Structures are given as C-alpha cells and as structure tokens.
Amino acid sequence: MTDVRVRFPPSPTGYLHIGSARTALLNWLWAKKNNGKLILRIEDTDAERSTQKSIEGIIDGLQWLGLDWDEGPYFQTEFAENHCKAADQLLESGHAYKCFCTKEELEKKREAAKAAKKEFGYDGTCRNLSSEEAAEKEAAGLASVIRFKVPELEGSLVYHDEVLGTIKRAYDDIEDFVIVRSNGKPLYMLCNVVDDIRDRITHIIRGQDHMSNTTRQVLLYQALDAPLPVFAHMPLTLDLQKRKISKRSHGELVSVQFYREKGFIPWALCNFLALLGWNPGTEQEIFSREELIEVFTLDRISKVNSVFNHQKGNPKFFTDPKLISINEQYLRSMDISVLAELVKQDFIEQGIWDDAYEGEQKEWFLSTLDLIRDRFHTVRDFATLGRAYFADDYAVEDKPLKKNVLKYPDLTTWMPMLSERFDGLDDFNKETSEETVRALATELDIKPGILINGMRTVLTGQLAGPGMFDILMALGQERVVQRLSNIDHLYEE
Ligand code: GLU
To answer: Residues 307, 235: contact at Cβ < 8 Å?
Structure first.
C-alpha cells in the first residue's frame, strides 16, 4: 500500500474553530494510525481575507492541541505558477476553454432561469468557440475566464466515499465551472487539487460541506491524469438550533483559543472532538492518544450531522456538558506532573507562578494540586477557586461568607483564639489541629461545625473543598495562623 499522506489545508481567514480542529484531528489520527504523514497547507489564495494573525492563530492552536504535522506549513500562494501551468495544460488538452461571456450577460441568463423557476447553470455559450473565434475576441481586448469543460456524458459521475459509500452526481447537473478568473488568478477549486496532486495526498478527510466541490474536483483529477485520492466526508457540526457552527454566528464560543483560555486540557478537547461525529462502537468515552490512534477508523465517522451543545449565554455551562465532563475526568485522573505543567502555564499567565514549585516546594505543589483537583472542572480553577493555596489575594465567595461567617459575629473572637492556639502547637499536624478545634468548641459550648465552616471560608474563600484538616496541612501553620487572626476585614464591607 502506498504511504498514507493526508493534509490539513485551512484558509487563514479567522481563528481556528472547533470544526476545523476536528478536521485536523481526524486527519492527524489517520496519519498516525498508518505511520503516514500530515501536511499542513495554508490556503492563502484569497488575499483580501487572509491574514497573518489568522495564520499564527491556526498554527498556535494546532500546537496547543498537540496536533503535530510532518511537512509544511506550505503556503498556497507560493505555488501560483503550478496552478497556472495546470490551467494551461487543461486548455491545451481540451479539458478547459476560455469564456468571454460578460457578467451582465450571465446575470441576464440567471434572471431568466429564475423567472422560469429553473436552476441556473452556465449554458456553454463559449464552449465550442473555434480557436480563431477565441483569438479574435482576445485581440479585441475582451476579458475571459477559463472554464472546465465538463464531459458530455450520459449518466452520473461516480466516486467512492469511505463514510458515505457510493456518491453519484448526474453529469447533466454539473455546469462548466470557472477555474481561472478574468484577472488570471486560479480559483480554490483548481489550486486545491493541483496542490493535493503535488503533495501526493492519498486521503482527503474533510467536511460534507465540501461535497459539491468534490464532484468537480474528481473531474479535475481525471482531466489532469492523476490518481484519485480516497475521500472521507465528515458530518457537519450544528448547534442546538441545528444551525451550522460557524465563526460568524457563534463567535468566540467556537474558537479553540476560547477553550484554551477557559483552562481546558488540550487532549480532553481532542477526545471530545473525536467523539463529535465519530464513534468507537462501544460505550468507551475516554481515550488516550494511543488508544484513539489504535481504534480510529474512517468507516466509523458518522453519516449524520453532530450537535455541539455549546449553551450560549449560560456562564456556568458555557459549553457542551459532555466536554466539561470529559475535561473533569482528565483533570481528576491524569498524571499529576502532567497536570502540573498545564497549571504552571496558567499560573505564569495569571502572575502567581513561583519557581519554588519546581524546586524546594515541588512535593508540596504536587500534593496540593492532587488534594484540590477533585472538585475542579478546568485547569483555570486552580488559579481561581484554588487561589487561596497559592496566593493571599483570593476572593471570599458570597454564599459561604453569609452562611458561615457573617451569621456568627462571635467568630471575630473565636477565630483569633483558634489562631493563637494553633500558633502555640509545637507539632501542627492533622490530629493536634483537630483536637484543638474540638477542645475550643467544647469550651465555648458550640458545635465544632461552626468553627470548621468558618475556618474553611476564611482560609479558602470557598463553601466546599477537601477535608478541613487536609486544608490546614496544605496551607501550613504560618498561613493558617495569620489568616485566622485577620478575620475582621470580612465583616467590614
Ligand atoms: N481551504 C479549504 C477550507 O478551509 C480546504 C478544504 C479542503 O479541501 O479540505 O475549507
């Protein structure tokens, strides 16, 4: 079997969105599975809409997701000469022709078709111009485009799709399409095929929205005498209202960058994206890279569109609950040192990173991450919900403040008392600190829970979390003593 070569060819006209990331992922999986190659090709022929910022964003997003490529990035604009040569070759071999019909003429025909309730397709006016007639028009300075000459055949063009099976399209329904504009610029339709031939692409895995192009591109392959690659068209990703997910209508909520900023784990996002439109045929939901590469096959890509439940406007579940659930499962079970790397990146960005976490405090750092991760949803939660363990400028949430602190004004006396007693402990450990709390509660004739809940709120700002005495050990005697003695400010506002 020939070596598998797949490609990811984004048009750099915006950020990397989850639909494109899924395309990149499935191509990457197929390359890895077959020890093949993934080629990154930036299709930047649309000069007006392509931007450097978008190119950087796409590359950055792929790198963050861990989707590495083997060749490229190639830039389509750098191969303009090849595209023009292919157009010339098609003209010479009689597979294409120059068309001099003006925009106005075509518009009139389009209107007429509309009035007759017929679908408009180019009627082939210039298809049979003799070379003399064409030369005359050119000499008269008439502008022309180059059109592909769709073979006049009975029946249908047929090709095989790995996902959808046999695809047929009646030749009659395919109009002679433009491959080079009147300004001499070849169109995406042609450039894409010429580049795929040059890059020796064996499999084209892309969205079903490209299927109308595929029909025409199959004709181009045939006319250019090149072997057809294998096609696999993936379902589209829709929102809950069954609208196609797009940058235009869903904005940042569908950008990979958004998930990065929210603290999603790159592979958890890949795992989720793989399941969006592909299924393993089992109930398994969590797949390591190696597992996914092992089980991934093209024929398990689903035929029907998939739904991305992004719950726009809901700040708590700003994205698909399944994505959150997969992310949580990774967060809570992944190797702690791998998690530490992700937290480190975030802490650096949040300005709370301390190099000691990789030096003398490494053990403390890892065990604290492990202690608090159970309730967290994203990597970002360590710097927000878990901030009290790493910085003194943590917020105290409203709910526990009211319920556990403001309701008991006596805590302004009790907490400093507790602070003093903790300070006096020679050996501050889980047992001695628990005895201290219980003894004080007995002395004051109150439930220990009042002290414990108050402590939790003062020390972590949170309503819930790990066991109280584990928290004390994670924070350490000095910080506990300091924070408990300083409860007054919570009553001030
Ligand atoms: N540049 C096209 C896109 O981003 C590529 C489509 C393809 O051939 O895969 O949609």
So the answer is: no
247 is catalytic: yes
Read off the pLDDT of each residue in 370-382 and give the average, rounded to a whole number: 95
Q: Quick check: CB of 477 below 6 Å from ligand 1?
A: no
Residue 175 in 3-state DSSP? Answer: coil
Edge-to-edge strands, sheet with 230-234: 71-75, 37-42, 5-8, 203-207, 230-234, 156-161, 165-170
SS3 205: strand
Q: What is the mean pLDDT of residues 299-324?
A: 79
Task: Compute the average pLDDT of residues 248-257.
Answer: 82
The stretch 328-348 carries a mean pLDDT of: 97
CA-based radius of gyration for the chain: 31
Q: How many CB atoms lie under 10 A from the CB of residue 66? A: 13
**What would the two tokens of residue 411 be?**
């805590």
Q: Which residues contact 351 (CB under 8 A, 6 or more apart)?
A: none
Q: Are strands 165-170 and 156-161 parallel, antiparallel or unpaired?
A: antiparallel
Calpha distance 315→331 (Å, rounded): 20
Span from the CA of 188 to the centroid of ligand 1 (angstroms): 9
Helices (DSSP H) in 7-164: which residue ranges? 18-33, 52-65, 80-92, 103-115, 131-139
Residue 254 binned pLDDT confidence (cut-offs 50, 70, 90): confident
For residue 235, the surrounding DSSP H or E stretch is none
Give me the sign of the Cα torsion angle 342, 343, 348, 353.
negative
Pocket test for ligand 1, best of 25, 77, 192, 246 (most atoms within 8 A of CB): 192
Lowest-confidence segment of 49-58, 99-108, 130-139, 312-321 by average pLDDT: 312-321
- Tell which residue, 349, 331, 343, has the closest CA to residue 268: 331
Strand bridging mode 165-170 / 306-307: unpaired
Beta bridge partners of residue 165, listed in sequence order: 161
Residue 1, pLDDT > 70, answer no
**Ligand 1 centroid, distance to 10 Cα (angstroms):** 6
Which residue's CA is minimally distant from atom 9 of ligand 1? 206
Is 341 buried (19+), middle (13-18) or exposed (0-12) by CB count in 10 A? Answer: exposed
Task: Assess contact for 411 and 454: CB atoms under 8 A.
Answer: yes
Average pLDDT over residues 122-133: 93
Point out the catalytic residue in the list 33, 247, 262, 322: 247
